[in-house]
Write a structure and sequence with these properties.
Shape: globular
Largest sheet: 9 strands, mixed
Distance between the termini: 18 Å
CATH superfamily: Class I glutamine amidotransferase (GATase) domain
Number of helices: 7
Order of helices and strands: EEEHEHEHEHEHEHEEEEEH
Structural class: alpha/beta
Length: 258
């Protein structure tokens, strides 16, 4: 039986500062293939090339990846400031309606870093432009120097709500995670449940209340060494199981329609 397909949201990127591409980190593909047991497919997140309808039909689930550009503040009713950084309006135009469609259909998605923030904005929430500028908050950004291992090193605890979705998944209320983000949730969107926090109160784990499909999303980067990391692997295993269940159901629908 063919493996299910997980669409990996790609980011616009310039090779040598001049050649435009849509790129996806290899570690995302590794996590999808090795832990989810699915076919990784990098999506050019631009409405010139794909539509939400196309993606819902072709893919069984979606990995909403991290990325340097941020969600444009106009998407949550705020003005642009220098602190908001770079943007990718084409990705906004694809992913925000894609999230809403998946919530309605029950089609699984897993949001990571920017993807976590996209889920909140798609459901009507807002974002802080720079977490480290808030009183009492930690600097959650990627360390500017060091090896990849040092950049993705475990840096703080995430504490989950008692008996919440993440507590049930892990069987513990505390895990250690990396942290490589500048922005974060300001106000949660409609039906967004904040299920885990960093020690400074920054939201780190969410899901969509009442959604029929998998909607777990995290602010950290579990794709790094996902097959070997005890915190990352359960997330991708659970996501993979949800995607396989969706794919099997869709095959049955197609067989009944044939």
């Amino acid at each position: 039986m063919a493996r299910p397909v997980i669409g990996i949201i790609g980011n616009h990127y310039l090779i040598n500062d001049e050649y435009p591409t849509h790129a996806g980190g290899t570690m995302n593909s590794e996590a999808v293939a090795e832990v989810c047991g699915a076919v990784p497919m990098v999506i050019p997140a631009d409405p010139r090339f794909v539509s939400v309808e196309d993606l819902l039909e072709i893919c069984d689930g979606f990995l909403l990846t991290g990325g340097r550009p941020n969600v444009h503040p106009e998407e949550y009713g705020e003005a642009v400031t220098d602190a908001h950084g770079e943007f990718d309006r084409a990705r906004d135009a694809i992913v925000l309606p894609l999230v809403r469609a998946c919530v309605e259909r029950g089609q699984p998605f897993f949001g990571v870093c920017r993807g976590f923030q996209e889920v909140n904005v798609a459901m009507g929430g807002t974002l802080f432009p720079e977490i480290r500028d808030l009183p009492g908050r930690l600097n959650h950004r990627m360390p500017p120097d060091g090896t990849l291992d040092e950049k993705f090193a475990l840096r703080h605890i995430v504490t989950f709500a008692k008996n919440g979705r993440f507590h049930q998944l892990y069987g513990t209320r505390e895990v250690m995670t990396n942290t490589l983000h500048g922005q974060g949730i300001k106000t949660p969107g409609k039906r967004i449940v904040i299920d885990g926090h960093a020690p400074d109160g920054t939201p780190e784990a969410i899901y969509v209340e009442g959604a029929p499909g998998f909607t777990l999303s995290v602010q950290w980067h579990p794709e790094y060494r996902a097959a070997r990391d005890p915190v990352s692997r359960p997330l991708f295993e659970a996501f993979g199981a949800a995607v396989r269940k969706w794919a099997a159901g869709q095959r049955n629908v197609r067989l009944r329609s044939a």
